[in-house]
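User: Predict the complex.
Assistant: Input components as received:
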Amino acid sequence: MSVTLYPASNFQDNLTLNMPGGTGTGTGTWTVNQDISGLPATFPFKLLVYTSGSENGTHEIVQVSAKNNGTKQLTISVRADESTTAIDHPNGSVLAQVPTAELENNQNQAIADLQLSGGTALITAAEAWSATTPVTNAGVNQAYSLPTLLYESGSGQWSRMSGATAASGARFRVAMAYEASSGSGASVRVYIPGSVITVASMSAELSRNFSSSGTTGACETTVRPPYYTFIGFLANATTFVFTGPVLNNTDYKGIFTPVTSGEAFSVRDLLYIKASDGRAYRTTADGAETGLCYTPVFAAQAATGAAQVVSAYTPGAYISGFSGLTVGAPYYPSSTLGAITTTRGIFGRVIGYATSATELLFAPGKDSENTDIQFVKAGENWTGGDLLYQKRSDGRYYKADRDTAESGILQNPAIAVTTHTGGAGSNQSAFLPGSIIFGYFNFSVGWPIYPASVAGAYSDDGSLNLDLFYRVVGFRYNDFGALCFQFFPQEMQFLPPGIQEKGYVSGGGLSDTPASSGNGIGSLCHTPIQFRKIMSNTPASLTITTIASSNCVVTVQDISRFGAALRVNKNGSGNVEYYYHGTYQTVGN
Amino acid sequence: MLIKEIHPKKKEFIFQNGTYEKLIPFAEILESAAWKESGVISVPFENDLGQQCVTCFAKNAFTDNIAHHLAEHRAKPEDYEQDILVYTLYRLLEGETEKSIKDEIENIVQLRITLAEKKAEGEIDSFALLMKKAVNLALDESKPEITLKNVSLEHIL
């Protein structure tokens, strides 16, 4: 609250007031040695009178009226019968401390520190208004009123505030009507911020913050309108403190923070705070830090170079001034520095959604955005997007290749994030399974994706070749984003090198061979041993272990990566049942 | 290593499976029904649990696997060596000389290395499929002029 001090030194010494005893009016004149033009011609005035002759003693408030005679003199009239009026600061009032003893019935000297709080000013009205307007509570007019709430609406003219629009509801230059306006061009007096105004009792509004209202010229106490300015509060049920604007939502759609520029950028450029120096740079979807932009902001002010502190929008802001946005569409960092686009690039998170062709709601999505990027140790150089596998012998990652089992089966696959030439042993970032990857690939919709014979490359032609090695590593996600790839490796069709298989095998038959002959029709059978998974290598041997057998000799022959043949030969003569039941165990895969 | 050692001059080899180990003369294999009827090296034995077992070896493991894998690509280098031992034993039992068998192995391994280099240089897409083609040509009895000892790039490119 503004307070204009009129120290005692600015007043005429040895002020003499004719203080009446009992009832009646006394008068006196102070000569003020400073400008008091801000005071109205006449106004209520209170004296704090020390009746015991000491500032620490008893005192009372004396209601007086003052007249500003325009010559730096105040004529003060005292009515003794109003001396018990409660303290208030009516209407741009003056509080004078008058330390004097035995004031009544005496001519006393008043050495005063005259404090002028608030005050009034003459302004030019842009429209007509009443001196007071009913207070609104949740938009409903109440029985009590406050001076009509005003704002400077341009070119020095004043109008009634309204929270319905930003231009009239969220303002800094505010005042309250001291008197009614007859219309545009009228010269009227208004309370300026800092005034303490005596009002009709509105105890229901105690402890509430008064703001502009959705009702023109009114003050609202409960539900803020879309555009508002807090302007005051009740000190008590009948004393309204017109603080002036203490808070408003002039920047009703913006949330800001200062940032230090790392480079030049323009207003509305999408920026990220670089981890290495903490400064703001323009984003680009071509890099991990620049595209995922863990700390995104939009430039609210331009920077012409590095090391400038400028204002930036933080998430949650509605940012206007764009053009050509698609309403409702998600926007991502673009490959163009600082720009946004509806096409998600290699890197990028949702930055926000267009609420109109010109406005974006800055609402970033998760920075990981369905991707899992981790550092892996490279075994060789590669290109961004290359399909990789982890080699068991050294734990490093190499480009996948379906010519060899470990490389084609992809027990532990990854996808290179960026091209690197750092050589073997360097740490490089890679997408891990489970990621949804944008920007690199344009595979056929619906076809499984698996490694190609060209190292690091992919195939989506559907011609899966079991003479080579592969593993389906994912699918084109859908048509949402033309380059979207779902990196979800499927079950391996091949048994990795070093893993053996054990299974069940049986064969046999009923021979009708004459009793005198060992072999004949029905005395030999071949039973397939079908491996459950395709071996990475043709096993060097199979060992069969007998569970039960009768009248037979068994051999395993024609062993391949896919299976073998169990040869069961009748051993003996006569018509007999011969069979072999057992297990097989591969060695050498 | 089920075939632990081969002693060509003594015409015998050492078979080992778990704790079972046996020195087996070539003649024992050649006289077996499995060899005579199926051309398979088959070794019956009793395992540590007292179960009756038969281990049968795959002659083609070496020629199949070399299309894809050298020793460094196998889970254990011994797996690669076992493939060679099994192949060598088969060829010895078939009457081939050690020198001839060594030449076959060296030629096919070198062809694999050469094709892998050509792939690395971008001259071919897949060495594995070309290796399979080379092996199939070498083992094709209708083309006796092409063997594992002489099959070369000219035959497959």
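Residues 288-292 of chain A form the longest helix (5 residues).
Let me know if you want any component modeled separately.
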